[in-house]
C-alpha cells in the first residue's frame, strides 16, 4: 500500500461525504507521517513502512473494540466500522504453512541450533510485516521441539 493511494481514497471519501471513512483514512495517514518523520524518511515513504503502520493501527483499533464496554453500543459500532475500513488496506500476511516453508528453506542452519531466541531474532528481521508475529512464534516453537 502506498501513501498516495491512501490520500486518493481520503479525497474520494471527502467528495462522497463519507465522514467515518474519511476520519479512518485520515488518522491512518497521520500515523504513517508521524512514523516516517520519526524514522527520517519524510519525503519518500516506503511501502514497507506504510504496511507496518497499517498493521499497528489495526491492532490498536482491535484493542479499542475489545476494551469498549458493551453498554456503549454506538461507540463500539464506530470502532468496528473504523477497524473494517483500516483492515481493507492491510497487506496480505503469510499463513503458518508459508512461514514454515520459508523457515525450512532459508533458515535451516539457524533452525539446527534449536535456540529459539536466536531463531526469532533472525527470522523476525526478515518476516516483519509479512507475517503475524504470533504465527511465526508458533511455527518456530513447533520446529524447535
Summarize the structure.
The protein is an all-alpha fold and 145 residues long. It has helices spanning 3-15, 19-39, 47-67, 73-87, 96-106, 108-111, 116-127, 133-143.
Describe this structure in words.
By secondary structure, this protein is mainly α. Helices cover 74% and strands 0% of the residues. The longest helix is centred in the N-terminal third of the chain and has 21 residues, at 19-39. The protein is globular and about 55 Å long.
Task: Produce the secondary structure layout.
Blueprint: H1 3-15, H2 19-39, H3 47-67, H4 73-87, H5 96-106, H6 108-111, H7 116-127, H8 133-143
General shape: globular
Question: Secondary-structure element order, as H and E?
Answer: HHHHHHHH
First CA to last CA: what distance? 37 Å
Q: Care to count the β-strands? A: 0
Structural class: mainly alpha
Q: Treating each run of at least 4 consecutive H or I residues as one helix, how many helices?
A: 8
Largest sheet: none
Rg (C-alpha, Å): 18 Å
Average pLDDT rating: 87
The amount of helix comes to over 70%
Report the sheet-strand fraction: under 5%
Low-confidence stretches: none
Tags for this entry?
0% strand; single chain; 8 helices; mainly alpha; 145 residues
Amino acid at each position: 500500500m502506498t501513501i498516495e493511494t491512501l490520500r486518493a481514497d481520503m479525497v474520494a471519501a471527502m467528495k462522497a461525504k463519507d465522514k467515518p471513512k474519511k476520519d479512518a483514512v485520515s488518522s491512518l495517514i497521520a500515523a504513517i507521517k508521524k512514523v516516517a518523520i520519526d524514522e527520517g524518511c519524510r519525503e519518500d515513504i516506503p511501502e514497507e513502512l506504510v504496511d507496518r503502520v497499517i498493521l499497528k493501527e489495526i491492532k490498536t483499533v482491535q484493542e479499542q473494540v475489545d476494551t469498549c464496554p458493551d453498554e456503549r453500543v454506538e461507540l463500539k459500532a464506530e470502532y468496528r466500522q473504523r477497524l473494517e475500513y483500516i483492515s481493507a488496506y492491510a497487506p496480505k500476511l503469510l499463513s503458518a504453512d508459508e512461514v514454515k516453508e520459508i523457515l525450512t528453506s532459508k533458515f535451516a542452519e539457524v533452525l539446527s541450533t534449536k535456540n529459539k531466541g536466536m531463531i526469532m531474532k533472525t527470522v523476525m528481521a526478515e518476516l516483519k510485516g509479512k507475517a503475524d508475529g504470533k504465527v511465526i512464534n508458533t511455527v518456530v516453537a513447533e520446529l524447535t521441539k
